[in-house]
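Review form for a predicted model. The reviewer records the input and the model, then writes brief findings.
Reviewer: anonymous (R2)
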Amino acid sequence: MTATHDDINYYDIQTRYAGISVIDTGGNGLPVLLIHGNSSCKEIFRHQINYLKGNYLKGKYRVLALDLPGHGASSNASEPRQAYSMPSYARTIIEVLEKLGINRVVVFGWSLGGHIGLEMLALCPKMVGLMICGTPPVAIGADNVALGFKPCEHMGLAGKADFTEEDIKHFAYETCGVNAPHESFLIEAVARTDGLTRQYMFEAFLSSQATDQKLLAETSEIPLAIVNGAGDPFINIDYINGLNYRNLWKNQVFNLANVDHAPFWEAPEVFNPILAEFLNDFQ
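Model under review:
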């Protein structure tokens, strides 16, 4: 099904595991794909979509955002155990890109979306550039995963299947930034999410079968931009700063002052010009 509203196309694309809801600004510009975080939705990228299709950038970019299986307006997965993992999410996204006929794409992934982007470094030759935010590239195993994060209550919620009303509000507020705008759709997105997405994704992330994302980040030739909030309460900034990246954009990790886990939402006026500068390298 396809619909158009405010010059944006809305698709429902059937993939192996789920029907995926996609928004697409269309046109012939460079395709840019935005991937949301755990228990969020594509609408979290409103400021980036409006910015990249705005007056002075109009026509340069074809912006796409989607809801992961079990999130937003996408369906729950038909085979949750198989579908709800970072590599499976990556393969679902690749399937969507193929069905849309997209042969070249730059990806921005936030939090879980960044981990999915890291998976795509190995799985998606069509991806020519990757920007991640709130996403520590970690090696395999629970101890290695722990190196990339700070111990906090949020990490327990990240893999919890059944949320209470208090959990829903807490997760939405903390992930978007305690000082960020807390619009109702953010809470609704957490409430809508299939709880098995959190449980199964987190179990797979900690398993011995997970992908070595640290190795990918340190060896991939694809340009990798990293833009974090300096106040992010969940990630270990020093760990991320200290990795030996092969092709780190501008040879630095950007840590934006006075913002938390979602700088693109909390401070789009600071974040968006950095994103646009990165994207301009692929024109």
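Findings: Residues 3-281 form a domain with the Rossmann fold fold (CATH 3.40.50.1820).
Further findings: The chain is about 40% helix and 20% strand.
Recommendation: see findings above.
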